[in-house]
Amino acid sequence: MSKTLTLAEVAAHDREEDCYLIIGNERTGGAKVYDVTKYLDEHPGGDAVLLELAGKYADDMFEDIGHSMNARQQLKEFLVGTLDATEEELQALRAPAHTGNGDSFLLVAVAGALVAAVGGYFVFMA
Ligand code: HEM
Which GO cellular component does the record give, naming just one (predicted)? Predict the structure, then answer.
């Protein structure tokens, strides 16, 4: 039977000699815990990216890369168990990535103001 781990239990496996990652979401069948310690040296994307996420929720990064079906298949070899966390806890872990949207909104607003100012200047000069 597969185990169920809490976020705190996963967080304890946060180094090169003992590296767990949480990958998965509602769409891919739920958040699951993987022991990638033995995979660090073999990962085509290198060990650094995995170590940076050691003991953490790595799903957003895993999905952003657009891993192949083969990579998804490989995941199964490293399965430790399922994650015992509420939807709110997972959302909180995703939060840092979401603040990025606020920044880009600001960027668009500033760029828009700049275009309006330059446009206004030319209209004024004409
Ligand atoms: C156990 C988890 C993981 C497995 C089994 C895995 C497997 C793979 C495989 C097989 C590839 C080759 C391309 C492909 O088939 O898609 C790959 C590439 C890559 N992976 Fe992962 N990966 C894992 C987790 C992650 C995570 C968490 C990141 C976070 C950033 C990551 C970043 C990358 C990058 C950047 C590449 C591209 C390498 C390149 O093409 O230069 N991987 N991974």
Answer: membrane
Q: Indicate the pLDDT class of residue 119, thresholds 50, 70 and 90.
A: confident
Give the residue extent of every domain in the chain.
Answer: 3-85
Specify the ligand 1 atom closest to the Cα of 68: 16
Fold of 3-85: Flavocytochrome B2; Chain A, domain 1 (3.10.120)
Cα 42 to ligand 1 centre (Å) = 10
Q: Do β-strands 14-15 and 18-23 pair in parallel, antiparallel, or remain unpaired? A: antiparallel
| Tokens linked to 53 | 């996420």
Burial 51-66 (b: 16+ CB within 10 A, else e): bebbbbbbbbbbeeee
Which residue's CA lies nearest to atom 35 of ligand 1? 45
ipTM of the complex: 0.93
Strand duo 18-23 + 32-35: pairing: antiparallel
Strand partners, 14: 19
Its pTM stands at: 0.79
Ligand 1 contact via 34 beta carbon (within 6 Å): yes
